[in-house]
Description:
By secondary structure, this protein is an alpha+beta fold. 37% of the residues lie in helices and 19% in strands. The strands form 11 sheets. Strands 10, 11, 12, 13, 14, 15 and 20 form a 7-stranded mixed β-sheet that branches. Strands 2-1-28-29 form a 4-stranded parallel β-sheet, covered by helices on one side. A hairpin with a 2-residue loop joins strand 17 (372-373) and strand 18 (376-377). Helix 20 (628-642) packs across helix 21 (657-673) and helix 24 (736-749) runs antiparallel to helix 25 (754-763). The longest helix is centred in the last third of the chain and has 21 residues, at 709-729. Residues 451-652 form the Aminoacyl-tRNA synthetase class Ia domain. It is found in: Cytoplasm. InterPro entries: aa-tRNA-synth_I_CS, aa-tRNA-synth_Ia, Leu-tRNA-ligase, Leu_tRNA-synth_edit, M/V/L/I-tRNA-synth_anticd-bd, Methionyl/Leucyl_tRNA_Synth, Rossmann-like_a/b/a_fold, tRNAsynth_Ia_anticodon-bd. This is Leucine--tRNA ligase.
Amino acid sequence: xxxxxxxxxxxxxxxxxxxxxxxxxxxxxxxxxxxxxxxxxxxxxxxxxxxxxxxxxxxxxxxxxxxxxxxxxxxxxxxxxxxxxxxxxxxxxxxxxxxxxxxxxxxxxxxxxxxxxxxxxxxxxxxxxxxxxxxxxxxxxxxxxxxxxxxxxxxxxxxxxxxxxxxxxxxxxxxxxxxxxxxxxxxxxxxxxxxxxxxxxxxxxxxxxxxxxxxxxxxxxxxxxxxxxxxxxxxxxxxxxxxxxxxxxxxxxxxxxxxxxxxxxxxxxxxxxxxxxxxxxxxxxxxxxxxxxxxxxxxxxxxxxxxxxxxxxxxxxxxxxxxxxxxxxxxxxxxxxxxxxxxxxxxxxxxxxxxxxxxxxxxxxxxxxxxxxxxxxxxxxxxxxxxxxxxxxxxxxxxxxxxxxxxxxxxxxxxxxxxxxxxxxxxxxxxxxxxxxxxxxxxxxxxxxxxxxxxxxxxxxxxxxxxxxxxxxxxxxxxxxxxxxxxxxxxxxxxxxxxxxxxxxxxxxxxxxxxxxxxxxxxxxxxxxxxxxxxxxxxxxxxxxxxxxxxxxxxxxxxxxxxxxxxxxxxxxxxxxxxxxxxxxxxxxxxxxxxxxxxxxxxxxxxxxxxxxxxxxxxxxxxxxxxxxxxxxxxxxxxxxxxxxxxxxxxxxxxxxxxxxxxxxxxxxxxxxxxxxxxxxxxxxxxxxxxxxxxxxxxxxxxxxxxxxxxxxxxxxxxxxxxxxxxxxxxxxxxxxxxxxxxxxxxxxxxxxxxxxxxxxxxxxxxxxxxxxxxxxxxxxxxxxxxxxxxxxxxxxxxxxxxxxxxxxxxxxxxxxxxxxxxxxxxxxxxxxxxxxxxxxxxxxxxx
Length: 848
Ligand code: ANZ
């Protein structure tokens, strides 16, 4: 008796799972093949909302699916628990970041239990535990030993009013987002990881992820790394001992260089200016102050008026000895290429804008009107068989960049370029690169957009950097036997951001001894970017409680890489790039035997409310914990899975949890109505219902693997409806096919609504847990649509035959017969006076 009580069922099965821990991954004795399924771990900031509900529902579908398919599944959960949210809460509310963080984690754990997620709860990790971050410190030192961690002075955004370092997003039009003060650049010495050493591998290995990662993510990673191929060219500078090297993607245009531009904020610009007149030095200083106020994005914008200062210095073009004036201008960036460019205004738009603004010469060296066949320019010849100069002059006059203001960036035929004349771009690049290399003034080269990874944070709530600064200026690792280097108590520390680290104020903590001399020494006051924590956490899940090593190489060989990684597209670049980088470092260190951490990646769409992404700041959160009682975990999960394709955004207003509740109640009722015993002979059951059941068994696996979860839910609904019909108006409750359908429903429903599925399974007379039941093999004979040949007669003569389903009804069969072209031809417009239909074999028409 009684109705479907979702909440009671939910609580009952959660207690049973907590008791038996059925989803723990199998250990050494388990011979099943393995699958590692992982959802991107959450920040413990505030409560979970429907965006999380979506992510972790999908993760659970995949984990449960592979268990049914006979795999030993690892599906762990942890918390990315260092970072700004905790620190900001501490600053705003005076809460201790540690207490705030762990209270949130407890709340999250309750929510995930209430959600029925099938985690291996024995493998929990929190990155803010010393037992975890001890291994961040190990990792840091590993990179340091391998020459991949170094210190460098670099500019940060600084608000002089708030005495605060600002993230790029906190600088709006050059002003502090909070107080409106003008932001300046301030130099700080910070730690970097040398990810640029891995740029080529990070780029090239993306090829092996093609088809397994979303195309969009692969493209974003490629753009972020941004490899450009070209040449480095060395220029002598008059009155300067060192040559200046520029990077160019168009060395073919070297003859067209008419000036040189250096980044004003580079050391080179300062050096060149210092060798110039007092007036130039002053103008340069003024300019530099202004440049400090604009962002990199503003500096690269093409529709911004060009500004710059002539340094009254000269470079010598290595190919023809021409003197080129040197300018400092902010459209050249200090940290790309070599921070200096050879300016070719005829063929580069930014150089052209600059040349036109400051009246500098413009020299065309590529005739872009010359058509190119393959890589070879087609040269128009005059009557003497010479390249036609007049035609050239005429066509070039039309497109003269000095007049049109449009740079000639296309391919064409080299002109005014000595030995390069007549060549196409591709050949000219090859030729000039060879010539420069032979002369020792240039070489083939590549540049990358990718920058080294700045990992220092002047914040409290992160992993302390395990390095010691000695009195005599050495920087040495904290000895391994002193790790973990744990954070001090937050109490008494000033956590407000001020450009120096809060840890610097923990005097006692800061003082240590030089491991070599025993003299007093200082700790490093910075903490690590939390992206370090998340760059390797998937390995820690393999041996989360191991006190002796970060992870076990042997376990990694068994489980990793992650087979299925599921998370938000907001992590498409940095998190994934850093995890890929660290994996390659660990591979090089011989600690893992693979070079990519995530074999397949799924990005789910966002959950929107009122058209925008759910977020606390927008006040449009639908909280996770609040929905666990009503509509309940199963309804939320099922409604989300049914809402649409995984990668599409979902409007929460369109998600019908009521519809999901009704469907689940129907499914549950079917299990209750079954009247046959578990040992019935299915083969004796109703065949048409059995066909629906077995088609679901056959189709669902590939649908799940293609993440078409919504289609699987739709097919389950179809099966439940067919079963209901069989009970109410078909062979009835006792038919074996009804039991079979209910059992299969429970097994497949487990992916989406595990509590309801377990309840059905128990009702059907089985021991728990349906979550561990092997996928039932479909009966192939029930999958073939059996067909028969029907004949169509007109006035007693067979005019056509039709292949039709053996179960076709009279109406459908008649319609098919009438629609058949041969039948229509035979009727030739005559009127049908009598029709006899005997499905599935005969249709007979009479005419007059
Ligand atoms: C001469 C030239 C001629 C260039 C021409 C382009 C076209 P990507 O593709 O983005 O790598 N460049 C080099 N270093 C720079 C810096 N630090 N800041 C701003 N611009 C810089 O662009 C490479 C091109 O950008 C280089 O090739 C250089 O200009 C410029 F017809 O050299 B080129």
